[in-house]
Amino acid sequence: MDMIETFLAQHPYFQGLKDAQIAAIARLATTRQVAAGEVLALEGDPCRAVYFVIRGRVRAFKLSPQGREQVINDLLPGQIFYLVPALDDGVLPTTTRAATRTTLLSFPCPDFVRVLEGYPDVAVQILREFACRLRALSSLIEDLSLRTVPQRLAKFLAERAQERAQERAQKPGQRQLTQREMAAQLGTVREVIARSLADFDQRGWIHLERGVIEIEDLDALIEFSNQCGPM
Amino acid sequence: MTKKVMPEIDREICDLCGDCLAACPTQALSLDAEQQVIVLDEERCAYCGDCEDICPEGAIRLPYEIRLAKKDRGDQDGSA
Questions:
Q1: Which residues of B touch A213 (CB under 8 A)?
Q2: Distance in Å, alpha carbon of A135 to nearest chain B alpha carbon
Q3: Residue B21 is part of a domain; what is its CATH number?
Q4: d(CA B29, CA B7)
Q5: CA-CA distance, A73 to A169, in Å (whole number)?
Q6: Chain-centre distance of CA A47, in angstroms?
Q7: How far is A87 from chain B (nearest CA, A)?
């Protein structure tokens, strides 16, 4: 099996397909190596390909009218992007740029649509993921309309700390998250989380040290997360 | 004495590309060519996260435990 076939065979979308089916799908794809900082595609351009991240990290962002980058999310190994415009024939919703040295797998849009048509199991796996994303987005929209990123982080920290305090009485082992994983859950990026944590630490609401976020003032965090208007 | 928290390096995923060595601002990472592993100098590591950011394989994690301060945890963990 070559690299493309190996990647597809291990990917959740293509679970259960026979080797010959994987090989047939792999023949439609090509790999592309990109250097850190290289722009992959521009917001507003027509969609030509669907991409999987094999290795590395891709940042998707939009440009504000003032030219400021608004980061939408970071795409990690295994994740797919530009599937939505491939399906609805729309233009690209974001600009994408390699954040690190990156290896991509790309399918021309018509070919990937043919894959979905020819392999219903693949389409069902993707639908399941879209259903999860939709549910998470609905929850995030509710949060977005009510809270800024720092407020969402404050709410998140307060809830996690309280859950952990209850769990410790029963069983240990709540999974520890990295700042990047927190960012992904809260609809932002790591740099914003890092800045917000530093700010909370300065305000005395948390004590931030290596591998530990200790909540010093739970009431202040909760009150801040429920405030109207920005910080 | 509490052991210092260190980044987690998944040596199964790490492909020894060395990007993390250049990214580390305190030169806490090095490559043991003989053993074929990335080595972390615990005294130098500042837990800044630059290595996690740059790793193209996602082999490095800097996790955080989120907890209430001891005064609010009471004796739920038996430590009071």
A1: 64-67
A2: 25
A3: 3.30.70.20
A4: 11
A5: 36
A6: 20
A7: 29
